[in-house]
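Supplementary Data S3. Sequence and structure tokens for construct A.
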Amino acid sequence: MDKNQVAALLEEIAVLLTLKEGSNSFEIRAYENAARAVGSLEGEIGQLVREGKLKGTPGLGPTLIKRIEEAVTTEHIAFYDELVANTPQVKLDMLRIPGLGPKRINLIYQQVNVTSLAELEQACKDDKVAHLPGFGKKTQDKILQGLEFVSQHADRYLYSVGEAEGERIRAALVEQPGVVRLQIAGSLRRRRETVKDIDMVLSVDDQAGSDVRRALMDFFTSQPSVKAITGKGETKSSVILQSGIAMDLRVVGDSQFPYTLHHFTGSREHHIPLRRRALSMDMTINDYGLFQMKDGQETLIPCKTEADIYAALQMDYVEPELREDTGEIDAAARHALPTLVQESDLRGVLHVHSTWSDGQNSIREMAEACIARGYSYMGLTDHSKLASYANGLHADDLKRQGEEIDRLNEEFAGRFHILKGTECDILRDGTLDFDDETLASLDFVVASIHSNFNLPQAEQTQRMLRAIANPYVDIIGHSTGRILLGRPGYPLDLDQVIEAAAEHGTCIEINAHPSRLDLDWRYVRKARDKGIQIPIDPDAHALVGIDDMRYGIGVARKGWLRASDVLNTKDFEALVTFFHVRRSKK
């Protein structure tokens, strides 16, 4: 397990303890604090455990260190498993309802006596929940909306969860004897924001015997993260992992590998027009091969890679992220596909938090972590004063923070730059949480909505449009406010927002946090086509959060972004010039 997974497990224990009747509040806080402590650790947690370096870390006592060591070495915590086993299933199911926390779940469970989400839905429809202490009709309606959201996203997992699970098994399998090629396929390879399952394709030598295939399948199905085996054969095996996500492994001869990989990468929407193109050229394509049809006979067209398949169809290679039937077939045939942005194109990070507001690390620590990752600048954006829950800064705080940044910039001169910024709250009427004089003193401003999510769409849209029109707003942060699998975005006319951002030269970020990935890739291309610069921002609240940039790259590539479309592919001087010029124009 990596740090994020361990921290998430500790947070889940805290939630499960809250759901447990008679739990000790001090124990709950201990796990919450431990999760934050783990998330802020620098270095690979497995190495820290092996070297015994967790001892003395604030927030980590002997019991918690043992739990963390157990998680790292066995990939689970027995105490967590015990809590899950002893928690009524309906309580666990209710945790998936947006906005419904453990305390309210306990109250519903105790006083309404529901044993399933279906019973909870009926209780809401019968108006039983509204009369509970501290609830009311609005809360009941929100629970009904949340139940509908849960139903729509059942059996889905964040991309980051699927990626971690798939990579763990891929890394183990690739070292096994007989493996020629191995690749994760499916929606993970296409970098969809959520996934239902994991597909993996493995090739062996065409002449390999059954013993090789059986040994690989035995190894796959006996991995520590496998909870159950749902199917096992020489060509395909299926398992359920400890996280609940299903995984399939297909083993083929190496000559079949590119066809099988292409087929199981998908998407279905991409394959349908591709097959039509093949048929128009008297070809047919499936997971066994690409075939030329003549006089009722099929002849295999040899392909060593997926690129060969597309070339045989007189197309440029289509990157997996683009295979969604959004125009990529026609563009590939016209040799008009963009050269997609890569993580190596990024020069710096914007939208970073520190201990001045709700971050877990100092400005220096965040800057040094960026330097270690090869970045040349960092845009600091601690919260504004309205965000009191996040220790938001007042104008005087910003001035003092600016003085610290000046000192650090002198120290880092020539090798790294810190930009002075803020993540400024957009108020209900669309004005900002700082006055223009304060905003003008900063290098750049990210403006975000953190409150009043339930305004009518027209009002919410006007709120956003007014913020975009402010001359000091350089970037709109996490534009819809969605939390993937957690809550839908607030109602917003994104087409209007994109039009306004293009008119005012305002950037719209891709928030790279794996629970956000907001702006959605479906709108990223619309923004690109309007000429909007789109920064990829980690919204990092701890050192490990900086590494979320790679998730944002996935969204950018799905949105057809080139390096020139991404704001923070600019070097420091070009970035500062960009901010200066756009403000001067306004």
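Construct B, processed identically:
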Amino acid sequence: MDPEAKARLVIDEKLEQSGYVLQDRNEMNPAASLGVAVREYATDSGPCDYLIFIDRKPVGIIEVKEHNKGESLTATAEQTRRYAESTLKYAPADVDIRFAYEATDVLVHFTDYHDKNYRTRDVYAFHRPEQLKSWIDETDTLRNRLRNFPELDETGFRDCQIKAIKGLEKSFSENRPRALIQMATGAGKTFTAITNAYRLLKYAKAKRILFLVDTKNLGEQAEEEFKKYKPTDDARLFPELYSVSRLNSSHIPEDASICISTIQRMYSILRGRELDEQVEEEPLSDENTQGGPRDVCYNSQYPPEFFDFIIIDECHRSIYNVWQQVLDYFDAFLIGLTATPDKRTYAFFKQNVVSEYTHEEAVVDGVNVGGDIFIIDTEVGKNGATIFKQVVEKRDRLSRERRWEQLDEDITYGVISLDKDVVNPSQIRTVIRTFKDKITTEIFPGREEVPKTLIFAKTDSHADDIIKIVREEFGMGNDFCKKITYQAEEDPKSVLAEFRNGYNPRIAVTVDMIATGTDVKPLECLLFMRDVRSKNYFEQMLGRGRRVLGHDDLVRVSPSAKTNKINYAVVDAVGVTKSLKSETRPLDRKPAISMKDLMMSIVMGARDDDTITSLAGRFLRLNGVLNEQEQKRASELAGGVPLNEIARRMLDAFDEDAIKNQAEKQPDGTVSDEAFSKAQAELIDRAVEPLFDAEYRTFLENVRKSHDQIIDNTNIDTVVYAGWDDDHEKKAAEVIKTFRRFLEDNKDELDALEIIYTDSYKQRPLTLSMIKEVYAKMQEAPYGLSRSALWRAYEVQQQSVVSQLMDIISIIRFEIGKESTLVSFADHVKAKFRDWIFEKNAGSDHFTEEQMEWLRMLRDSIVVSASISTEDLELTPFDDRGGLAKFYELFKDQYETILSEMNLALVA
């Protein structure tokens, strides 16, 4: 038997697997089945190897080559095309041979001639007759529909998400089979992917999409994201439009538009086997993946064309290594999502990176926070130790049973053996004790509680040792520090939820369960007590600390936090930051140099990477705590350029791609060293130009000081006197004198002061933002006034308590003579409210009790925000009572008059 005949035997078997009836030409019966493959059918170019009939009509050609001709199979496509364009014996002239296959016993290539710019692609097997019939019945092909997406409504999307969505759709329009989206942790990869899935289902008429993960936990998270996703062009949620199914058995619902599965489960489904759910608990990585490639075989229930698209979450892991056949099985577009691609990832996705959004860019945009590195070196942790020949304690790793044995010889152990073969409790205790001493003094100065901290341990045994010592050294109970690993007795998900949302645990210890793909936004500190070999894995670990979080949400779990989350800390106790070259460069290279000195160094000519990058990091951190008015003022002083944009320019000045884009190109498109240096110098000069303005530098330094506190841990205080300072009245007078100067300087500049001075409440009500603007100006140089300083000063003179931000109104009114006595703003509003109610009820009509409840709510809102508007009635607490509609129902046509009168009567 010749080699081609042998190949045909295999192809016959594959065609039968795919649902075709095979026939020789002399016994041809196209009506025998939906799909019929006829051997050696005659054409005017000679007999073709197979002619495919679907629903009695000839629609496709198969050209067969022997095993060793696989390397030239691409060239065979031209021969197949000639057969497809030939006249079929006995057939009418308008026969449309649309589908073409080239095959050996191991390879199958496929082309759909109805695709614009059609292109041959590898497929695992021949498409089933039902699939070809479905394509024939459609008005156009999937690949043609992918060329015509409507414009994206960009409302509510970040720039990086818009870039990814549009980049992916451009890749689809070019019929690229694989595409990679690189997006920093926290930038919204899943949200972006769901948006793409929605557009593929709606506009490209995709049949079914597989969302592939490598842990059950990530699958559950993805399912929740799909459930709450609401598209911009439809009021319904995603599951109301398209069926979403997370696979937890060997069955795939045929009506599911979105299938969420681990790659381990999908492999078991294709193999027709059940799966132990424990296999889905632990993420795939180079460190825990064992064995050779996972072989799959044809599954008629779930053929290769079952999915049109596969979205691969966290695709930087080893799914493209030992698990690659699961992906190669399906005739689908592959979309990879990752924050940390490596060379293998780029290679697998054919270097088709449709969108890149780095951690550094995310920090500039406020999507991520930057991190600092704090080193703890110990003698044993760095160099190991020697145990001299003696009786030593030994412990069983799992049972923890202890025994004593005599050593036969001295034992010298290194860092690799530490906590695996040898446990040194003193080394762990020294690290934890140092961490305890430094965490609220140097790492997070001023914190009263330990910021949420995640400790990475080497093994579960190591984690248990760490937990015991953490509890002892901090003098806390079991709730303070807990283990979150796959082997933990306590439900890991419950502990993780407590760690994310509750006050305790303050410290969690893990091996790798929350190293990747798990959000714990309040997490501010990562303590490494294990080294990591994989650069990508380390980057993923760092990603746990990079999530941004607002102040209100942060203080719910860390009450002493003074700002929103503006940075995270890496505490390196094992040299992990030195043994690995993280692709993310630390921004602050000169943490010991003040921001003022960094700025002056640049003004005096410093142009090195470390100085400029360090200042960029400081600017980004400062930008995270500035209020709206401070950010506006900083931008004005810099000629309209926001502080975070200046930081971006500084970082771009040392970004090779940005420099090359700026540089003048040579005729061949390359950039000479001279042009590169010139372009970089231009970018640096542009970035640092605002720093030459002394007023700008002074503003940044002063505003930084207004947000900073100095913690003095070097001087121990003792009480020498308790009582009034002898010259406290003099100091109070100085504060009030400064306040009067502030009022005089700004009475025509600030809206709130102008309204109070002119009693123009009726024309324009006071607002909370106006009062915040006044307070921000009070804090700036040369006044340096705080609310508490004014409180104490007027308390000395008036013996009154002034404690809220809105009380600044009362102080101003008292100071300029609008009030004869100083009372808190709340008391002022309440007194005015009583007078107003008495006046309104003096007539024949009285407010009902329900109306009075609403009026009291309006009064309380004015106490904290100085005014009330109709828009405010749609917010808390009014929305819980029916909002603006209910207010209108109660007060009818008088509803606007009521608001206007209260704004005037209660504040003026």
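The chain has 35 helices and 24 strands. Residues 286-292, 709-727, 799-803 have pLDDT under 50 and may be disordered.
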